[in-house]
């Protein structure tokens, strides 16, 4: 089961303000990659999370932020595709960006430079 599916089956959760898990970031990890195709796989994972959450009637606020992160990840894929001159991956990434562009822009209103960069990355320009 995906983490999203597991989270929907939890009956009760408790928040403890203590560290029990230490996260180590690696430059070469999957979420820090500059590989457009790998990032598009992350976008597919977000699509799966959104499907699970929609079926479970998860709140609109949570859905908004999952869509935002999907659009952001797609923008990273588009940027990587531009850098590697991979037009096919860029087209896929741009389509994913467009799908949740409204949510991305709505949640980034205080950062107009992010919105501007987001829109620029959607354009194929080599």
Spell out the key features of this protein.
single chain; 6 helices; globular
Tally of alpha and pi helices: 6
SS-based class: mainly alpha
Outline, from the CA principal axes? Answer: globular
**Main pleated-sheet profile:** none
Rg calc: 16 Å
Number of strands: 0
**Beta-strand proportion:** under 5%
- The helix content, as a percent range, equals 55-70%
Q: Could you name the ranges where pLDDT drops below 50 across 5 or more consecutive residues?
A: none
First and last CA, distance: 40 Å
The pLDDT mean sits at 90
User: What is the string of helix and strand elements?
Assistant: HHHHHH
Would you give an account of this structure?
By secondary structure, this protein is mainly alpha-helical. Helices cover 64% and strands 0% of the residues. It has helices spanning 3-9, 36-55, 60-84, 87-99, 101-106, 112-121. Helix 2 (36-55) runs antiparallel to helix 3 (60-84), helix 2 runs parallel beside helix 4 and helix 3 (60-84) packs antiparallel against helix 4 (87-99). The protein is globular and about 50 Å long.
